[in-house]
Amino acid sequence: IRRSSGVPVASDFDGSEPPMVVDGVTGLVYAITDADEVVAVGYPSVRTLTNFVSGTGAAGVDNTAQSVASVTTPANSMIEVGDRMRVRAYWRGDSGNPITGTLALNGVTVGSNTDGGAATLQPQEAWLHYVDATHANIMSTNAAGWDTAVSAANVAGFNWASAQTLAMSQNAIVGNHIVVYFLAPDLFRKPV
């Protein structure tokens, strides 16, 4: 980047800190110096990759096992040991019989919880810690607390080099379905 290109450099801005530029593909943050150099300075502390938010919710269908809401995480979201991803969902059963909501990334269950039929908000959260290109450690919690059925070390089935689907799904229960209000993966990159 040169001044003649018309791209602003640090000297064109007031303040003691150089301007920051974020690469929209990798999320890497760069500073533009007064010497017209672009310098990598690291990753933001947290970045929401994509999300689903609805005030009225996305509703499943009674007696139907199905994915109710999903988002896609970009390829290379996590690339090295020290990278971690938090995935979160908020949902409730509509009414009636107990129903289970399952949070999965790339088909790997990272969280699960059952609404006992009271139609109460069910928060789910899981932390995924990068192990290698296809593995992660999972620490999962839900409305009942620590989810020991899902939390595990060195879980296979992820593909960090590719885009992956984060989905909130329901099991088939007569007279009930889930309503999803929020679904998002947040990326925490290893500091540079």
What would the keywords be for this entry?
mainly beta; disordered N terminus; eight-stranded antiparallel β-sheet; four-stranded antiparallel β-sheet
What is the compact description of this entry?
The chain has 192 residues and is mainly beta. 0% of the residues lie in helices and 52% in strands.
| Average residue-wise pLDDT | 84
Secondary structural class: mainly beta
SSE pattern? EEEEEEEEEEEEEEE
Reported for the largest beta sheet, the result is:
8 strands, antiparallel
User: Which ranges are low-confidence, i.e. pLDDT below 50, for 5 or more consecutive residues?
Assistant: 1-14
Alpha plus pi helix count: 0
Helical content stands at under 10%
Distance between the termini: 22 Å
Give me the count of strands. 15
Choose one word for the global shape: elongated
Strand content: over 45%
Query: What Rg, in angstroms, do the CA atoms define?
Result: 20 Å
